[in-house]
Amino acid sequence: MIFDWENSGPGAPRHDLGSTIADLLEVDIDPSPLVAGYRRAGGDERAFAPGDFGQALAHQAHMMELSCQRALDHPAMGDEIGDRARWRLDRALIKPLTRLAVDRLVIDLNQRARSH
After folding, report:
1. Residues 85, 86, 87, 93, CA torsion sign
2. Tell me, what's the pLDDT at 24?
3. What rounded mean pLDDT belongs to the chain?
4. Is the pTM of this model over 0.90?
5. Which of 18, 30, 4, 7 has the alpha carbon at shortest distance from 106?
6. Which of 3, 21, 42, 50 shows the greatest Cβ crowding within 10 Å of its Cβ?
7. Cα 62 to Cα 22, 37, 59, 88, 113, distances in angstroms
């Protein structure tokens, strides 16, 4: 797996890591190999905290807003933009990244780190 820091900009790499973890979980992919690789490559060993997922929450909110607008602008089924927007909304509403979900994720990631 390749983890590209090029687009992390001036933000903290841990926030980009948190966003990538959230993206993997959205499509049911275990983020453990990513976290292990990040740490092997010299990444931060600190325990995860809810703030590490702030960028992921902001991204989810932005994508939901954008998807709502696109779904309304392209209401016909079979319209690629509208169909993709409705798919994104369905995924976000099935497994939303909420504060409770972040708290559970932090606990799970930190437990996994302690067990390895």
Report:
1. positive
2. 92
3. 88
4. no
5. 18
6. 21
7. 15, 28, 5, 12, 30
Place of tokens 């509403």: 93
Residue 75 burial (CB count, 10 A): 9
Token pair recorded at residue 31: 């983020």
pLDDT at 1: 46
Nearest Cα to 113, choosing from 40, 43, 35?
35
Say if residue 108's pLDDT is above 60: yes
pLDDT, average across residues 67-83: 95
Pair 37, 44: CB distance under 8 Å: no
Backbone angles phi, psi at 60, to 5 degrees: -60, -45
One-character DSSP codes across 59-103: HHHHHHHHHHHHHHH--STT-HHHHHHHHHHHHHHHS---HHHHH
- The answer to whether the CB of 74 falls within 8 A of the CB of 85 is yes
- Say which residue the tokens 């060993």 belong to: 45
Tracing tokens 């909110």 back to the chain, one arrives at: 61
In this prediction, residue 27 carries a pLDDT of: 83
Residue bearing tokens 């067990």: 115
